[in-house]
Design brief:
This protein has 295 residues and is of the alpha/beta class. Helix content is 43%, strand content 17%. The protein is globular, with a radius of gyration of 19 Å.
Length: 295
């Protein structure tokens, strides 16, 4: 077993040579494994390393501390675009230009695009929360084992709009009804509610998720490595021709334009609220705003 880390230890990489499995761990449990651009780039480097290693057949993706990932770190929203962010000393920076948004979002979605077409078998060990980009990664894995109580969703749609993420993938993997429900409400759904839909390889009790993910990883690693790589490219060709035409451009284009919103009176502006009240209170006020009691 060999191991290394990147992004100040927030991404760990281990190779089990005996079983042809590499394990990539998001390792910032104090922030529920949310990731910034540096951490995402660390993931990308390790994924490239595994892709180029002929002795690896499977990459197991997981999160430390019982949480997979809550997606992109929104504590400093504009920092993704190279700005000073907001909420610093009670001030807000100027929003990035559309040209800057498109440049950065193109790179960001390039990471997801590459992961969706990754040449090795990807196995997801999903527990706690898989939100935003974490939810996308969970859906993109070839084989996903999900704890029954895992919270899944795109809650950022409540303050950045529903044109987030890989829309083609959401509609293809979730189906148009569920995709619309999750994107148009920002609801966080327990994985157990989706068990009957077959969205994931396996949904199990939380105590079993680590062992079950390892089981699927070892099972896939028994396959002939050349055959797996060829199959992954064939799968990619089929999905690209049937489902994902235009995905590479559409995702980052819609994200860049769709997240540059103007808010009318009575609509919840998360960035402004956070600058005025702080992150914790902004999340509380967000949930209060969007709460609608069941009839």
């Amino acid at each position: 077993m060999t191991s290394s880390s990147a992004a100040d230890g927030r991404v760990r990489y281990e190779v089990d040579d005996d079983h042809r499995i590499a394990t990539l761990t998001l390792n910032d449990p104090g922030r529920k494994n949310s990731y910034d651009a540096t951490m995402r780039d660390g993931m990308a480097r390790f994924l490239d390393e595994a892709a180029e290693d002929d002795d690896i057949t499977v990459v197991l993706l997981r999160g430390a501390g019982g949480v997979f990932s809550t997606g992109a770190d929104m504590n400093n929203a504009y920092a993704w675009y190279g700005g000073k962010g907001d909420g610093e000393n009670g001030t807000r920076s100027r929003p990035p230009s559309q040209r800057r948004r498109l440049t950065v979002d193109r790179k960001s979605f390039g990471f997801y695009h590459d992961f969706l077409g990754y040449p090795k078998v990807t196995v997801g060990e999903i527990s706690g929360f898989a939100l935003g980009g974490g939810f996308e990664l969970a859906l993109m894995t070839d084989l996903a084992v999900v704890a029954r109580d895992t919270g899944l969703g795109m809650p950022a749609t409540r303050f950045l709009g529903p044109a987030l993420g890989s829309l083609h993938m959401f509609f293809h993997r979730l189906g148009p009804v569920l995709a619309r429900r999750m994107l148009l409400t920002g609801d966080i759904v327990a994985a157990g509610e989706l068990e009957h839909l077959g969205v994931f390889t396996e949904i199990c009790d939380p105590a079993q998720v680590t062992a079950r993910a390892r089981y699927w990883a070892e099972k896939a690693a028994k396959m002939p490595a050349d055959g797996v790589v060829i199959a992954k490219e064939a799968f990619r060709l089929v999905e690209q021709s049937q489902v994902y035409q235009g995905e590479e451009v559409a995702s980052y284009l819609f994200h860049a334009y769709g997240t540059n919103l103007q808010f009318s009176d009575g609509e919840f502006n998360f960035v402004k609220t956070r600058a005025e009240h702080g992150t914790r209170e902004a999340f509380r006020l967000r949930d209060e705003h969007f709460h609608v009691p069941e009839p």
